[in-house]
């Protein structure tokens, strides 16, 4: 059983909702990646979505764009990231999925990237600009070969048959974008609830995590009534803003997660 | 025999194209994929499009035999005068097409990106004509260097939003427009100005611009008795005027297709936009194409004196023309383009846009066999570039 499956199994048994927190590799400092991840794990994150910075992140709002720009200025690259992650499984046990955009992964070499990710102990991959057709034709077998989960996004505008298709192609979990938007926007949560409860009505094979606009305990509790958990990104990046050094990062992470859990 | 150049059902030209978009954009892009051809082929659409191209834009644009330029180069040179279109460039052909299409899709709000401002002006113009809300994203750097076009867009009633991320030019304006579309999925149509973006944009924009080569064929026949030129030349940033100029010659193997990219301060100067020389296969703005990028896959900031060519990618059609060898790709530096602009102005009394000046510069780089019939797309007029031209005036006196 994969790390992600184990997590959702355990959470279900304990009737607990999964908290997935997004952080940007190489942010706030080039070498803070592991400090941030450790702080997240020790303060209650059940899953970590580790963002690989990209020059043109189309799906991201300003906060995550900024963190990516800082990380790139700091010198973050995929090679540097894999170096940083070489022994991370000695310190971190929660599942970790890498999130990024197609272009840097293609330049690294898709198979080479998957091989390396699996070697260091990464559990899955989110590439929002990889469409299902190309995924099926070119990439799904590579992910299987390295036993990496691949997570697709669905939105309130995704048609039922396409939700079923994206769920079938996904493994690990399905990422429900709370409304059609870039990351970090405030939401009308009554609309989000309607959508999530509709989603609950489908016979999905994967657990569902909701993301985009989740920022505190109120929005976490409200949305996870209908899902297996939620993803927080921009709000945490904002809380991390400008912190330097392990102690400051840990303190900022702790006080942020205290407002969520 | 050479492979036929055409888009396949999944939106690919050879290995380039596709729709690499986040799921948030899928419903809009899928709707376009499903409906663009049937809308474009609908008689009422055709009627309105043709009417506007004729009476509003002033088409057909003349095909002009430039006699003094021809004498200088030593072969027959015809200029396809897209600069004489309403709003001053070829961009209006596509803007009209897409806005009419957006209306038929029930969209009320139009967004666009712009580099030199020509596409922004064209879109703002058609939105004024149709009474639609218009928002144009433009890089902060470009807003400064293309001030006259910013003023025009504002007078036309468009809202111009500066793109402040990255290099603050066309690439970043495109990112911002795409993000706007993600955040406004139901009421908005995104009028992309070039043959870039997810399928069906590259094909849709090429079709709207194909009027350029459609006219060239019958105009040339009228003038010379020959329907086919020996060479067609156009500048390429994203590549919309080149796509329109090449379109009806793509599968005419005797016609040499020549694209001229912007080499900025020199191809290998680190300040260039010569994508096919400097780029590698990658994904940018929703399609797989050739992209200028670092070995780590970060898109690099290009440079060209011409805001319309200052783009680190190229449409997937052009990537395919390059990779398959069907197209010949040249480049012109900022200085070469300036020289060509002053040369045309003094020989023919036509001030070209800086973008088109790159295409003109290509003339000096090709050995034309005797009897060649060369058509160059003069994609736009130089009014918007007068500040830049005045700065360099002394070099050409």
From TrEMBL, chain A:
Catalytic reaction annotation: (1S,2R)-1-C-(indol-3-yl)glycerol 3-phosphate + L-serine = D-glyceraldehyde 3-phosphate + L-tryptophan + H2O
**E.C. number(s) listed in UniProt:** 4.2.1.20
Function statement: The alpha subunit is responsible for the aldol cleavage of indoleglycerol phosphate to indole and glyceraldehyde 3-phosphate.
Which pathway does the record list? Amino-acid biosynthesis; L-tryptophan biosynthesis; L-tryptophan from chorismate: step 5/5
**What do the Gene Ontology cellular component annotations say?**
cytosol
The protein's GO terms of the molecular function aspect are: tryptophan synthase activity
Its source organism is Arachidicoccus rhizosphaerae
Q: Which PROSITE patterns match?
A: TRP_SYNTHASE_ALPHA
Record's family?
Belongs to the TrpA family.
Q: What is this protein called?
A: Tryptophan synthase alpha chain
- Catalytic residues, chain numbering: 49, 60
Q: Assembly state and interactors?
A: Tetramer of two alpha and two beta chains.
Q: Which PANTHER family match?
A: TRYPTOPHAN SYNTHASE ALPHA CHAIN, CHLOROPLASTIC, TRYPTOPHAN SYNTHASE, ALPHA CHAIN
UniProtKB/TrEMBL annotation, chain B:
- Which pathway does it operate in? Amino-acid biosynthesis; L-tryptophan biosynthesis; L-tryptophan from chorismate: step 5/5
GO MF term list: tryptophan synthase activity
Cite the EC number.
Answer: 4.2.1.20
- Please list the cofactors this protein needs: pyridoxal 5'-phosphate
InterPro entries registered for this protein in UniProt: Trp_synth_b_CS (IPR006653), Trp_synth_beta (IPR006654), Trp_synth_beta/beta-like (IPR023026), TrpB-like_PALP (IPR001926), TrpB-like_PALP_sf (IPR036052)
Q: Does the keyword Nucleus apply?
A: no
Q: What does this protein do?
A: The beta subunit is responsible for the synthesis of L-tryptophan from indole and L-serine.
| UniProt record similarity statement | Belongs to the TrpB family.
Keywords on record: Amino-acid biosynthesis, Aromatic amino acid biosynthesis, Lyase, Pyridoxal phosphate, Tryptophan biosynthesis
* Catalytic activity from the UniProt record: (1S,2R)-1-C-(indol-3-yl)glycerol 3-phosphate + L-serine = D-glyceraldehyde 3-phosphate + L-tryptophan + H2O
Q: Which residues carry this modification: N6-(pyridoxal phosphate)lysine?
A: 91
One GO term describing the cellular component: cytoplasm
Q: In its UniProt entry, what is this protein called?
A: Tryptophan synthase beta chain
């Amino acid at each position: 059983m994969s790390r992600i499956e184990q997590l959702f199994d355990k959470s279900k048994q304990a009737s607990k909702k999964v908290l997935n927190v997004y952080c940007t590799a190489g942010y706030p400092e080039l070498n803070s990646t592991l400090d941030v991840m450790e702080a997240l794990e020790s303060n209650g994150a059940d899953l970590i979505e580790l963002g690989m910075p990209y020059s043109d992140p189309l799906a991201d709002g300003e906060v995550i764009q900024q963190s990516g720009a800082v990380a790139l200025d700091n010198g973050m690259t995929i090679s540097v990231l894999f170096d940083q992650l070489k022994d991370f499984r000695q310190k971190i046990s929660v599942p970790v999925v890498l999130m990024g955009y197609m272009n840097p992964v293609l330049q690294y070499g898709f198979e080479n990237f998957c091989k390396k990710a699996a070697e260091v102990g990464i559990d899955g991959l989110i590439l929002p600009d990889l469409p299902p057709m190309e995924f099926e034709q070119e990439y799904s077998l590579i992910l299987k070969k390295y036993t990496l989960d691949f997570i697709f996004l669905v939105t309130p505008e995704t048609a039922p048959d396409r939700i079923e298709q994206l769920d079938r192609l996904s493994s690990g979990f399905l990422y429900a974008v709370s409304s059609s938007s870039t990351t970090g926007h405030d939401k009308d949560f009554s609309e989000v609830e309607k959508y999530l409860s509709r989603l609950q009505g489908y016979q999905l094979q994967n657990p569902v995590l909701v993301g985009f606009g989740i920022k505190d305990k109120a929005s976490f509790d409200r949305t996870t009534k209908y899902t297996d958990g939620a993803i927080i990104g921009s709000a945490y990046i904002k809380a991390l803003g400008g912190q330097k050094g392990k102690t400051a990062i840990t303190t900022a992470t702790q006080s942020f997660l205290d407002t969520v859990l | 025999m050479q492979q036929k150049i055409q888009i396949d059902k999944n939106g690919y030209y050879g290995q380039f194209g596709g729709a690499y978009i986040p799921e948030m954009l899928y419903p809009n892009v899928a709707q376009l994929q499903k409906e663009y051809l049937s809308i474009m082929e609908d008689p009422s659409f055709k009627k309105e499009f043709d009417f506007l191209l004729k009476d509003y834009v002033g088409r057909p644009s003349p095909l002009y035999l430039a006699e003094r330029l021809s004498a200088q180069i030593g072969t027959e040179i015809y200029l396809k005068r897209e600069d004489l279109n309403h709003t001053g460039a070829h961009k209006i052909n596509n803007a009209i097409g897409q806005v009419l299409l957006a209306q038929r899709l029930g969209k009320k709000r139009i967004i666009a990106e712009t580099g030199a401002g020509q596409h922004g002006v064209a879109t703002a113009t058609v939105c004024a004509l149709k009474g639609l809300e218009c928002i144009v994203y433009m890089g902060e750097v470009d807003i400064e260097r293309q001030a006259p076009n910013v003023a025009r867009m504002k007078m036309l009633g468009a809202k111009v939003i500066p793109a402040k991320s990255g290099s603050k030019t066309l690439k970043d304006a495109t990112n911002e427009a795409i993000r706007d579309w993600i955040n406004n999925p139901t009421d908005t149509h995104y009028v992309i100005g070039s043959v870039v973006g997810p399928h069906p944009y590259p094909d849709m924009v090429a079709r709207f611009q194909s009027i350029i080569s459609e006219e060239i064929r019958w105009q040339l026949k009228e003038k010379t008795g020959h329907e086919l030129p020996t060479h067609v030349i156009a500048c390429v940033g994203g590549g919309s005027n080149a796509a329109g100029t090449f379109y009806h010659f793509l599968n005419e193997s005797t016609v040499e297709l020549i694209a001229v990219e912007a080499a900025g301060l020199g191809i290998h100067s680190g300040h260039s936009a010569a994508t096919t020389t400097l780029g590698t296969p990658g994904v940018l703005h929703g399609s797989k194409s050739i992209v200028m990028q670092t070995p780590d896959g970060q898109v690099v900031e290009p440079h060209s004196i011409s805001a319309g060519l200052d783009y680190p990618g190229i449409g997937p059609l052009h990537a395919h023309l390059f990779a398959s060898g069907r197209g010949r790709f040249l480049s012109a530096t900022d200085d070469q383009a300036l020289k060509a602009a002053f040369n045309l102005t003094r020989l023919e009394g036509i001030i070209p846009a800086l973008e088109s000046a790159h295409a003109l510069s290509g003339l000096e780089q090709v050995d034309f066999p005797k009897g060649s019939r060369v058509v160059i797309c003069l994609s736009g007029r130089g009014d918007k570039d007068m500040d830049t031209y005045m700065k360099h005036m002394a070099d050409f006196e």
